[in-house]
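Q: My labmate handed me this sequence with no annotations at all. I'd like to see what the chain might look like in three dimensions before we decide whether it's worth expressing. Could you predict it?
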Amino acid sequence: MSLLSAVLPGVREFRTPFVVGSIWVALVVLLAYPSWDRIGKLDAVSTIAVLAAAIPQSIGWAAVAFVAYVAGVTSGSVGRWIGRSHAAGRSIARLNKSRFRASGRIGLLVRRPSETAETLVRSSVRERLNPVSPTLAALVPKNLVLDEFDLAALRLGREASEQYQQYDRVRAEAEFRTGIAMPLLALAVALGLMLPPFPGLLVVASGVLVAGMLMIQGLEYRQQADEFMATAIYFGYTSTPMFDALVGAATADLISGRVNAQVGDVAWLAAFLDARNMLTRYGEFLSKLRHPSNHSKYELDAIIEQMEPVLGERVRLFLGRRLENGDE
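A: Here is what I predict for the chain of 328 residues:
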């Protein structure tokens, strides 16, 4: 691996939180400016000013840069926590199901990979699992692979640095654009409120437009990065730990003949996920089996009867919760 390929990912990781934090720092300074004289009389601020005057200017700027970086890292962590929250997930799910074309497209763009990435992942799953069990290849949820793209990137960086650089460049651009969109909007709103009505409204409108364009570009870059990763998985440059574990376990259990019936394949997959506390997360294939359109192909009640009693009860509870939540 060349020196440049080793350094560039670190530069990309530093750029986004530093720029985002710098914008937040600029926003704080802008909001504090009208009251700067009063703030400067506070004991804490006076002490900081004295200390800043006593140290070299280069160290002072380094401290400001460090504060900006920490602010960017903190805001990014808060944003990811909000995005993964239950309320945000349900809101995006409602957007996905919306009858209005615009809101539906927003929900799909925010949360889902592109159709190309999903198709490549499904093809990878079928290619590796069809020799073991066509039934299993059809049932394994694509999210089992999609959710571990970050882990697949670690392996890609070690085994195929050229492909990783391409993926990391696009991923970093996605994070940069989505990261600076909201602080830029907040800065524009704060500046607009300090100006007379007409120029202030113009600044706010411009901020909304720029932030919206940056967010859309960032989300499109993220989908492109997902496509690069799905392509790398499809051509065998990398894989995900859980998918490798599933293929290895299925090969050992199903090809050996210990489990060879169609009902056994489905029960085996449920047991595999349950043993790793992932049944609730990836058990949607069981709901699909219960759908009337699949009744002639799969007998879910018969499948549950073939499971261990504890697993069978967990599957029934899982299906009951999905029915109560209206997910089917």
